[in-house]
Amino acid sequence: MSALTIDDLKEILRAAAGEDESVGLDGDIAETPFTDLGYDSLALLETAAVISRRYGVTLTDDLFDDIATPQALLDEVNSVLSAAA
Amino acid sequence: MSTRQDQHTERPERPEDTERPGRPRGVALLFPGQGAQQPRMAVGLYRADPSFAARVDRVLALWGAEGRAIRRDWLSDAPRIPLDDLRRAQPLLFAVDWALGRTVLDWGVRPDALLGHSVGEVAAAVLAGVLTLEDAAALMADRVRHLAAAPPGGMLAVAAPVAELEPLLGPDVVVGAVNGPRQVVLAGAEAPLAATEAELRRRGLSCRRARTVSAFHSPVVARAAALSLSALQTTLLRPPHLPLHSGYTAGLLTDDQAVDPTFWAGQPAAPVLFGPALDRLLTAGPLLLVEAGPAQGLTMLAKRHPAVASGRSAAVAMLPARPADGDAEPDAVRAVWRALAEQGRLQGLSSTIPAAAASVGGSTGTRGAP
């Protein structure tokens, strides 16, 4: 499985928000805190669920206690993916 | 509720919903409720801003010895009663919400809308003049006393639309809050809620327990909530002098609704339709939303609304997403002050801007027009 890119993650974040909601994810958001992007704990759980389904990785529910930005999430997911490869 | 939800889903495109550059945004204050409480929330601001501290202390003093116990637990790293207990969460949320909202009003801002979530609606009602701070504090104490004796329960946030969840709810589990198109909070006694949670997880739905040991906004607390009616019937309730929106009616409160004791007594057991209420506000025109309370939960909900995501409306919060000592909390308040100044809502105070900003505003005693 190839590594997750920031564009992949943006698409996943949009999918997790659902079509009734809309989010401002344009531009460089890698270091923007999820809270500033409007992603609360439930929206982040949904984001993790989408990643788990698409990439076949298991992400724990307390993942986001330490992960505050898209870049940190990318790093975490990619380290899990490379460990599984 | 289904009717309101339908309105929410349709998002009617009214003429005024289209973007008009230069059109001034209105100001709406949002007040969070149960679930938004955080350890040491607003303590950094309490330490840094004497005027905010005075407002919080004024509320706590109304609860006498219990108010002192609440303050000790709030400021303590090892509270005797945990913050998530409603005897701490409810009064502290009320005090912090009200004190922050009062701060904005004391800057001279006359908001175009007030909207609270759950107990936040009581803070909004005080600022709108429906009941005095003293009467609201008495209501909170009475309500907390009764609710603390209610059967235990829980609440579960689920990332799914109401329509998808309703057929999956077990007996004795209800929709306690609709926070957004895919943000629903279920409520019920522990055993039935756990059974429903297991079923929802089996279906792959994302679930998260809310920080509460009570099944707010469900029939579990209905009897306890109704016990506040007799005290409310002897409380003077006045029509709001600011536009007071309700998370229970998902719209602007009428004078008749605002002065109805049964409306206020029923709130802890009634479903919160915050998402539909916010949607109606944002659909009516461009707004600067100001969250007057901890945790930025309502701000984050608002940021996923198309009106805010598109930049037509904006959302700012008076406290950080997580509590912080040092400058973070006063800085957040200053940023809101600047955002309001940029909207031209502090025009009457131009000569006091530097002083007010330096002291987190409000402590200069300046109010309203010069």
TrEMBL record, chain A:
Residues 3-81 form the Carrier domain. InterPro entries: ACP-like_sf, PP-bd_ACP. PROSITE patterns: CARRIER. Pfam families: PP-binding (PF00550). This is Acyl carrier protein. It comes from Streptacidiphilus cavernicola.
TrEMBL record, chain B:
It is an enzyme of class 2 (transferase). Pfam families: Acyl_transf_1. Keywords: Acyltransferase, Phosphopantetheine, Phosphoprotein, Transferase. The keyword Transferase applies. Residues 30-323 form the Malonyl-CoA:ACP transacylase (MAT) domain. Residues 1-22 have a biased composition (Basic and acidic residues). GO terms for molecular function: acyltransferase activity. PANTHER family: FATTY ACID SYNTHASE (PTHR43775), SI:DKEY-61P9.11 (PTHR43775:SF37). This is Acyltransferase domain-containing protein. It comes from Streptacidiphilus cavernicola.
